[in-house]
Amino acid sequence: MSNSYKALSALLSYPTADLKEAAGNLREVIFEEALAPERILRKVDRLIADYETLDLYELQERYVFLFDRTRSLSLHLFEHVHGESRDRGQAMVDLKTLYEQGGLEIGANELPDFLPLFLEYLSTRPAEEAQTLLNEPLSVLAAIRERLDKRTSPYAAVFRMLEAIAGGEPSKRALDDLRKAPDDDPNDLEALDAAWEDEPVTFGPSAGDCPKVAQMLDRMNAGESPADVAKTARS
Fold this sequence. Notes:
Shape: globular
Number of domains: 1
Helix content: 55-70%
Oligomer: single chain
Structural class: mainly alpha
């Protein structure tokens, strides 16, 4: 179990006064565990330094501009794969079930694919299992990092650290498909409105499925431990 996942989850959450106050603690955790090369940790530290030096309103405005108003940077992982279509619904249900089987209860209004929540779950899992699960959305993480790099955003360092912790390589085909998706400009309000005109998300068993997660759940229901499932989830 690693507190670095919790620290990275906090850094990808909406900035608050409490988070700003805890910046030093986040730095201590990340450097103490050192799950990534120092050059990457130093880049993450620049983001932490922003929390210490910038005005809270400025931090919040930047966060909203990037992650709430820019769909191509959405922190909801399944959105990059399924959009707002019904296919996202069963994937959400399966992921929520995985959390519950791992002992993480989430609120009724929380979406399971929200990256900070996913990282919070990983912080409760053994290291090998967490690393395996982190590799599942690696292509999405790499695509978001590339878009943040283009914007010279310090948030890119968080995604670079997640890639380093995962230790794998994103699927070239999946990453190429993600690169083809529009990288929207949040200042173009007309294009932004058009981009969000999709089908509403439908949750429940009538929606489409997410085979990888579903297979993991089936094996866990059959009596395999989460650790054993995680070891072979890539196959």
